[in-house]
Specification:
4 strands, alpha/beta, 4-stranded mixed β-sheet, binds zinc ion
Length: 276
């Protein structure tokens, strides 16, 4: 199913889809995922609003999700919140303009100390946060049972989806996501509120996403292990951690995916190279 969603994250910074791919746009039922670009009240957010609309980010996400059979409509919107946030609540995913603006700011810092383009430093985390919130929606609407913290499960499902793309897309989005968490960890002096939070610490989320990626594709992410990003003592369990997520997906979520629409989605190019 979820192959292809990455395209939605292009955030208007990348060359989105090739002309041929655009013609192959997926035709879903169109009524189970409702999208909305809410006009921003803050004038500073208008360029983001216009760019995301121009690049049809939410339309692509809706196409990407079309194989998923949901029992009720899911709304996905981008709007001003007054705070940096992205969240799921009562059938609606909300990505705040403030979150996108923050992502651009932190991406600029990431590119200073890493060999990654500004585009990939934004696109990877943007795709990841969208999928993380959609994962919360899937858990809620499909009544998916979970052991462990839901925030960890949402991170796992988002990473799993990113890894179902070709090597180039998987690599760019996972690395971009990991580097965001690492930058957040470097900027953070954790206190009791952070330890008590529902989310893992950014440093933990950094290691977790790399471990899942290495467990899925050891060769593709071998250089990150060699560089010492992932400690040797953790590496041994990564394959099993990925297998556990794969088993959960096949058992709990795959039965809710339409195979014919999945094939259409998988046949579409979502994040072509060349936008780097
Ligand atoms: Zn969450």
């Amino acid at each position: 199913m979820i192959r292809g969603v990455v395209g939605a994250m292009a955030l208007g910074l990348l060359v989105w889809v090739s002309p041929a791919a655009a013609q192959a746009s997926v035709e879903g039922t169109g009524d189970q995922v409702r999208i909305s670009y809410v006009e921003p009240k803050n004038p500073a957010h208008r360029p983001i609003y216009e760019r995301l609309q121009k690049r049809r980010v939410l339309e692509d996400l809706r196409d990407f999700l079309s194989p998923l059979k949901l029992p009720q409509p899911l709304t996905i919107k981008i709007e001003g919140c007054g705070v940096v946030n992205a969240y799921y609540s009562s059938g609606a995913v909300t990505i705040c303009y403030e979150y996108v603006a923050w992502l651009h700011q932190i991406a600029a810092k990431i590119t200073l100390s890493n060999e990654i383009s500004l585009e990939d430093a934004v696109v990877g985390p943007f795709v990841d946060v969208l999928l993380h919130e959609v994962a919360h929606a899937i858990f809620d609407l499909l009544k998916i049972p979970l052991f462990g913290r839901e925030e960890d499960a949402a991170d796992q499902l988002a990473a799993f989806i990113l890894l179902q793309f070709g090597n180039d897309v998987a690599r760019r989005t996972i690395v971009g996501t990991a580097l965001l968490f690492r930058q957040m960890a470097e900027d953070q002096q954790p206190g009791s509120a952070d330890y008590a939070a529902a989310h893992g610490l950014p440093a933990q989320r950094f290691y977790n996403v790399l471990c899942i990626a290495y467990g899925a594709q050891p060769k593709l992410f071998a250089d990150y292990v060699k560089q010492g990003f992932l400690p040797v003592f953790r590496i041994g369990s990564c394959r099993w951690e990925y297998q556990q997520i794969l088993h959960a997906f096949k058992t709990l979520i795959a039965p809710h995916v339409d195979p014919a629409l999945q094939a259409k989605v998988q046949g579409r190019e979502w994040l072509p190279a060349g936008g780097k």
